[in-house]
Amino acid sequence: MASKAPQENIDEQQLHVGKIKSKAVGIPGIMHAMEISLAQMGPVRTAQTLLKINQKDGFDCPGCAWPEEEKRHAAEFCENGAKAVAEEATRRRVPPSFFAEHSIASLLERDDYWLGQQGRLTDPMFLADGAEHYAPVSWDFALDLLASELKGLADPNEAIFYTSGRTSNEAAFVYQLLVRGLGTNNLPDCSNMCHESSGSALTETIGIGKGSVSLADIHNAELIIIAGQNPGTNHPRMLSALEKAKKNGAAIVSVNPLPEAGLMNFENPQTPRGLVGGGTALTDDFLQIRLGGDQALFQGLGKFLLEEHRRPGGAWEGRVLDTPFIEAHTTGLHACLDQLAAVSWDEILLATGLELEQIHATGRRLLESKATIVCWAMGLTQHKHSVSTLKDVVNLLLLQGNIGKPGAGVCPVRGHSNVQGDRTMGIFERMPSSFHDALDAEFKFDSPRDHGYDTVAAIAAMRDGAGKVFVGMGGNFARATPDTSVTEAALQNLALTVQISTKLNRSHLITGRQALILPTLGRTERDTQAGGDQRVTVEDSMSAVHASRGRLAPASTSLMSEVAIVCALAKRLFTGDGGAPLPGAPVADWDALAADYSAVRTHIAAVVPGFGGFEEKLTKPAGFVLPHGPRDGRTFDTPSGKAVFTGNVLEYPTIPAGRLLLQTLRSHDQYNTTIYGKDDRYRGIYGGRRVVLVNAADLASLGIADGALVDLVTEWHDGVERRAPGFRTVAYSTPVGCAAAYYPETNVLVPLDSTADVSGTPTSKSVLIRLEPSTEQAPGDNVEAQH
Does 632 fall in a domain? Predict the structure, then answer.
């Protein structure tokens, strides 16, 4: 198919606002998924792909990391999974002729949606210093150039290697080996911007930075608290698990600044009731919390439990806390209890914006529950005090012994399909010494031990001239990261930028003095190497590892797999004439690893705990589950050998008069930086993305009309003006003082040095802004408001 978008940029004049939906999925979800699938893939390709998504003999969905049931439906995918597959398996192509026709300057005038709609990249492309167009080159030219630039660095730490969470275990493992073989730990990844706060908090408190629950636990929980998460858009298959939990008697409490349709009512498209019977009401209680008030809520719930436990003559006196569990398996209780006793209810209510009875009602649900799970996502991880917030989540669960028993535990819900697996494979700038020791023993070299750059530090290094070469394994670094203007200038400060990609995005246009695009196979495509057709593996949010095998013919005969690209580069870097390893380099047969990925898995089994007998374990169609001490036997890999209660000073944002606290979020027609369309039908937004959702009382107090065109301007102590121009105001159900707008358009507002304590995660859920009349000319059509 010719490289042509289905439509040009959608002008914001077409924007209109309808009713907020109170139900998710159902027939509209099916219709929208099929509309996009047929437009991108056609009927035959649609059937070939959708019936293999998440099947035991098929490929893992390139969307979210929610796990699969043992018994699977023939259509084991959600609406957004179908969109993700359609984007990858599209028949549209971006051949060299496209770049001959379009200069970098002309492509920079296009938006993210238009760029993504062009289709699959087909050939290696090179942008020479001073050139206005990319030109096709051979793989040998591209890899030789990259190897030459890396060898020519004065210091290996001048190279930065980014990773997206869609990279397979096999590709991630050889990638980190290459990076450490070069002599650096500069391995920033998308985890730095999402669940790094989760990993930091969980590692300190329970000894492992992963969730402790299984799907069976979700199904059998008595109470599920879902905080700062919108599964209806971001993890739609989770709704099926919640529906099963409801049928088994679970209560669900949703904690979020915005009401989300997916947590109100789920019309399961795989059941008759979901299609014609009205669906399933999921949320029992909705706590519409102020942005950044979650720590106060969890401290308030802990305070309620403590008061009930200590209430003289009360019905629960002495029976709330799980004393045997606490005494046998935890330490630090008094620090936690002292904080809960000290924090005042007045401050808790101020921080949360909730009524006391709302918190007490959730507290009573905790009293009645014998098995409680807390699920969360970016709404809890992207604040300055996120790590403390999550430690208070753990405190709450530990008080009642809700770690390491059926139906209970912590459930950080990951986004990218293998973001957790990439970290397990070593994609981290601060891997423990035990990993380095095993890696060194397996490959007979000395890996560097100094910590490398995370994402924020990498941007700062590039900005300051300490970075020279950037390699991105998937993703869209320029758009996914904070402080867009700073990030773009940092990338343009480099000698060479390299993007290993399936599709065109803005990171291919914001380049160093030279740039390479290395097109790679997608998850849906057949990966044939010298050893035959290959399979890769991924790890889901619940530590289950399983195989993925694409079936479609590759989009181009010029594509290389990620594993093959890394191995070909490593061979150039680490071997001399005749293929002998260079002194000090990791000793590996790079040709053999590229030819047969089982050889990679043999190395993984020798280095990474839990992967012994890796290849044999993959003979099980559903894969296998990695060890998890807290879940498997209430063992905790902490210095004390016990789970750790913590005392955390209560923090929450304050909002000056005339200002708003902004959260960035996804629309329903979007997956991270990939834009599938300009609608967000659950929130009633159609035909545009440059909208800001604001409480009607705030609009009135600011003297701004619903539908007015405004600029969003960051308030930050460095005095630098960060402005996102031309946003339509939409009166919406948000807490007073809080606003919401879509990223990546609002990433420009997030200061680079506004990060979470400990984890370094950008604070994209708490950006202080003011609204100003737009400096751009307003479109002619008024926004139609029907809320």
Answer: no
Q: Taking Cα atoms as reference points, which of 479, 474, 503 lies closest to residue 98?
A: 503
Instruction: Evaluate whether residue 420 is within a structural domain.
Output: no
Residue 67 structure tokens: 């796990």
**Residues 370, 485: one domain?**
no
Q: Closest Cα partner for 502 from 58, 175, 86, 143? A: 86
Helices (H) and strands (E) in the chain, counts: 31, 33
The CA distance from 725 to 127, in Å, is 31
Q: Per-residue pLDDT averaged across 647-669, rounded?
A: 95
Peptide bond connecting 744 to the previous residue in cis, omega within 30 degrees of 0: yes
Count of structural domains, the chain: 4
Contacts 24+ apart (CB under 8 A), 43-48: 45/89, 45/91, 45/552, 46/86, 48/551, 48/552
482: closest CA among 747, 740, 725?
747
CATH number at residue 324: 3.40.228.10
Greatest Cα pair distance, the chain, in angstroms, is 83
Q: What is the pLDDT of residues 418-463, one digit of tens each?
A: 889 999 999 999 999 999 999 999 999 999 999 999 999 999 999 9
194 three-state secondary structure: coil
Q: What are phi and psi of 464, to 5 degrees?
A: -90, 5
Average confidence (pLDDT) over 336-361: 98
Helix-helix angle 455-463:484-491, to 10 degrees = 60
As a whole number of angstroms, the distance between CA 490 and CA 179 comes to 21
484 and 558 within one domain = yes
CB 300 within 8 A of CB 348: yes
Among the three residues 49, 70, 88, which one is the final residue of a domain in this structure? 88
- Report d(CA 686, CA 680) in Å as an integer: 6
Is the separation of the CB atoms in 550 and 48 below 8 Å?
no
Considering the domain boundaries, does residue 424 fall inside one? no
Q: Any bridge partners for residue 655, and if so which? A: none
Q: Are residues 407 and 336 in the same domain?
A: yes
Question: 297: which 2 tokens?
Answer: 């809520």
The arithmetic mean of pLDDT across residues 483-506, rounded, is 97
Is residue 164 a part of any domain in this protein? yes
Instruction: Determine contact, residues 76/55, Cβ cutoff 8 Å.
Output: yes
Which residues lie below 8 Å from residue 758, measured CB to CB, with a gap of 6+? 197, 200, 387
Residues 77 and 118 both lie in one domain? no
- 538 vs 168: CA distance, rounded Å: 6
Residues 434 and 408 occupy one common structural domain: no
Same structural domain, 528 and 394: no
The DSSP 8-state label assigned to residue 473 in this structure reads: E
CA-CA distance, 275 to 125, in Å (whole number)? 47
Rg (CA), the chain: 25
In a 3-state reduction of DSSP, which class is residue 550?
coil
* Last residue of one domain, picked from the residues 363, 378, 412: 412
643: left (phi over 0), alpha (psi -120 to 50) or beta: beta
pLDDT, tens digit, 9 for 90 and up, residues 57-81:
777 677 777 877 777 666 666 777 7
Q: Is 540 in the same domain as 674?
A: no
- Could you tell me if 462 and 533 lie in one domain? yes
Among 748, 406, 448, which Cα is nearest to 586's? 448
Query: Which one has a higher pLDDT value, 41 or 572?
Result: 572
Q: Which domain holds residue 604?
A: 96-186+429-589+600-623
What is the four-CA torsion angle of 358, 363, 368, 374, rounded to 10 degrees? 100
